[in-house]
Amino acid sequence: MSETSHRGEIAELLTEGRVLKPSADFRAQAQYADPEIYARAAADPEGYWADWARQLHWFEPWSEVLEWEPPYAKWFVGGTLNACYNCVDRHVFNGLRNKAAIVWEGEPGDRRTLTYWDLYREVNRFANALKARGIGKGDRVAIYMPMIPELVIAMLACARIGAVHSVVFGGFSAEALADRINDAQATALITADGGYRRGTIIPLKHDADYALRTTPTIRHVFMVQRGSFPLRVVEGRDHWWHRAMQDAEPYCEPEPMDSEDMLYTLYTSGTTGKPKGIIHTTGGYLTGCLATTKMVFDLRPTDVFWCTADIGWVTGHSYVVYGPLAAGATIVMYEGAPDWPDRDRFWQIVEDFGVTIFYTAPTAIRAFMKWGKQFPQQHDLSSLRLLGTVGEPINPEAWMWYYETIGGGRCPVVDTWWQTETGHLLITTLPGIHDMKPGSAGVPIPGVEAAILTEDGQPIGKGGGYLALTRPWPGMLRGIYGDPERFVQQYWSKWPGLYFTSDGAKRDQDGYYTLLGRVDDVLNVAGHRIGTMEVESALVDHQSVAEAACVGAHDEIKGAAIVAFVTLKAGTLPSLDLEGELREHVARKIGAIARPQRVIFSGDLPKTRSGKIMRRLLRDIAEGRVLGDTTTLADASVVDSLKRQYEEREEAG
Ligand code: ATP
Ligand code: MG
Predict the structure, then answer these.
(1) Which domain holds residue 560?
(2) Ligand 1 centre and the CA of 474: distance in Å?
(3) Nearest 5°: phi and psi at 332?
(4) Which atom belonging to ligand 1 lies closest to the Cα atom of 315?
(5) Residue 466 domain flag
(6) What is the distance in A from the centroid of ligand 2 to the CA of 256?
(7) Residue 68: which pLDDT band, with cuts at 50, 70 and 90?
(8) Ligand 1 pocket residue status of 272, Cβ below 6 Å
(9) Which residue of 313, 480, 499, 515 sits with most ligand 1 atoms within 8 Å of its CB, as the best mutation to test the pocket?
(10) Which of 116, 178, 213, 221 is the most buried (most CB within 10 A)?
(11) Residues 206-245: tens digit of each pLDDT
(12) Does any domain span residue 201?
């Protein structure tokens, strides 16, 4: 391919037009198998979403489905409901009392199963424990917990009394916790003495104590006793969860919430900069979560649904808690690391619990690939019937591995594009309707409309551009906590009335959207715009490469020179020969224009704690700058060693 190749052609070449069909078996039993649903929703999106909303229990009906004064949306105006009631009580009263709601495994191997009735009892009591301490409607409650059932109970108890939860990922530092508490002016904190991760104890309460020195708004702290980890108790402020539960009344009336009352705030991952405290409200959010869980995951009553995301991220909010529980599903929750005590832990859990739907992130899939097939192959994964991915673009190579090795070539894969801001997934395929194109997410779900635009808002038919959402959807963010200006500035100022996603995408002749990476990450080489995703996919396509991240370093002549950071598969060693081979491999796959100038081998890549590659830090390294905000970085030593390595390379010429 010539140097002048168009970037649209580049991506096509990479995916090689691979199209896979979900099996006839899957299609025959799929619940959403009629493509008419798209046309119906497009003709009357408000009616379409209202039909979904009617599956929820409303105390008072809404008077208007949507009030849209860009950029402010109100869904199900005037309706009142309670998210906890919809996730718990509704099922208890509808015959699911003894159905397992949560099947949980701790990292040390301890297990608990909570039926919907158990969940109901626990949530009611904890709601009363909060209320007894004066916490109520509109109060903000920070939650800093390991992945244990009490985390779900705490969130639902907040929702029951109308308090706004703000979950902070348990892997964050005391400082990050303090920032988030102060931003939300939270009056209570729910935590635990600790949790297990890779065999060690994460002392959450101990860490939280540091945060609590600088968080004057906190009046009450609840602590779950997960182990018997040492901690300090401040009389009057700190309460053991189990004691508070003993003293609490068994029933708490669910608070009727306005559809637009705040359900929670949650911070974005911080991949591109300072995290934003995203606001989600009740009626629209729950409707979107319920609809997408049922439709995209083809959920049926017998399913065992495992979304592996930590609840500290939006994926955990929407697809561990609110979506599946609103749908009355059985969810699996696991506390610890995927490689503890060995690299087959996830597959052990799938086998033991008979997981049918498995939803994880590309970063995890690439780690599984790196570790090798032998780990999943030790287990019976035949219960699985559907796989999903979310969080980053998935390169076709990893997609195929997932499909074949985990799904046995039998399970459709849904690649779901969405953001903390969007509340629920928005672009994907419906497994009973669509063919799958590895590396391409699919189409906007029914009732959602997207577009690919130029800088000045002109639509692009084919080829790459900015991904925009062109009509309001129920789970959309309602603001950034405490920063209404940033809300308008960040999402709504590029093109009036249209939502700017910050992601680049292209669309093919079938209307499938392929995500090209963050707009900030797009490479501009000698006037050609190349998606980081495209070069990375070409690299990962090489048999030795496990993971790759590309950035453009400033280059006098070309504008940007591509620098590739690469981790290798187990058993492969870095060498100059391999570097040359990889550079040629990319040139062959995409064209000489995309040949990386440098390949830097690394044991790991800098990632957010949610597992996303932080290319902006790699850019800082490649351009010799001081590193930007690193507060959401998972492992600071990774960037330090990369920086050193890069500088040594530079000196050596
Ligand atoms: P920040 O906004 O703070 O920089 P972040 O964007 O990583 O952090 P999230 O809301 O967790 O925070 O991630 C949403 C982003 O993840 C999307 O904008 C997109 O870039 C990426 N993403 C999510 N799912 C997919 C997917 N299926 N395909 C491609 N990209 C995806
Ligand atoms: Mg983002």
Answers:
(1) 522-652
(2) 19
(3) -105, 140
(4) 11
(5) no
(6) 32
(7) very high
(8) yes
(9) 515
(10) 116
(11) 999 999 999 999 999 999 999 988 889 999 999 999 999 9
(12) yes
